[in-house]
């Protein structure tokens, strides 16, 4: 393994600060072992570039599979939504047709009822007109009867008056002859 610092310079520095050469080399070799152990621990948690590329490829293939699944799911859901939409459109058209049929039926019933009511009103007016005409005829008949009766009474009165006048004249002429 490569060591990323100058071990000889560290040994010299330790010797300058009162360590013996043997002590300095032991300290430096201990430091190198500690660093190696730490690097081993770090390298265990790390991946190599090749492993990283393999993991990246696996992740990308999983993402590609998920994308394909999502596209398939999206298409199937879209087609399901389209078919559901078509069903709803058909149901809406059926409801619209039923509604139009009901409206037509109600209109026809209303026209029939209106025409029937008009016929009843016309019949009622006709009955009233007939009753009024009959009443007018009865009144005219009664008036004519009354006029006839009045004329008859008038003639009777004229006869009685003429009779009375002739009777009075006869009596007056009788008295006149008697006095003469």
UniProtKB/TrEMBL annotation:
It is found in: Mitochondrion membrane. GO terms for cellular component: mitochondrial inner membrane. Gene3D superfamilies: 1.20.5.340. The chain crosses the membrane at residues 160-179. GO terms for biological process: calcium import into the mitochondrion; positive regulation of mitochondrial calcium ion concentration. The keyword Ubl conjugation does not apply. Keywords: Coiled coil, Membrane, Mitochondrion, Transmembrane, Transmembrane helix. Belongs to the CCDC90 family. This is MCUR1 regulator. The lineage of its organism: Eukaryota, Metazoa, Chordata, Craniata, Vertebrata.
């Amino acid at each position: 393994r490569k060591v990323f610092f100058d071990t000889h310079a560290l040994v010299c520095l330790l010797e300058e600060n009162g360590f013996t050469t043997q002590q300095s080399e032991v300290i430096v070799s201990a430091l190198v072992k500690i660093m190696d152990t730490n690097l081993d621990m770090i390298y265990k948690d790390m991946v190599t570039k090749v492993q990283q590329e393999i993991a990246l490829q696996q992740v990308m293939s999983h993402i590609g599979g998920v994308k394909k699944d999502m596209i398939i799911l999206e298409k199937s859901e879209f087609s399901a939504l389209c078919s559901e939409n078509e069903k709803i459109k058909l149901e809406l058209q059926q409801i619209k047709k039923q509604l139009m049929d009901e409206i037509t039926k109600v209109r026809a019933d209303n026209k029939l009822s209106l025409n029937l009511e008009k016929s009843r009103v016309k019949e009622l007016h006709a009955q009233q007109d007939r009753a009024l005409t009959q009443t007018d005829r009865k009144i005219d008949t009664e008036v004519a009867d009354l006029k006839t009766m009045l004329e008859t009474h008038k003639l009777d009165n004229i006869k009685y008056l003429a009779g009375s006048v002739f009777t009075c004249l006869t009596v007056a002429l009788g008295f006149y002859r008697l006095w003469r």
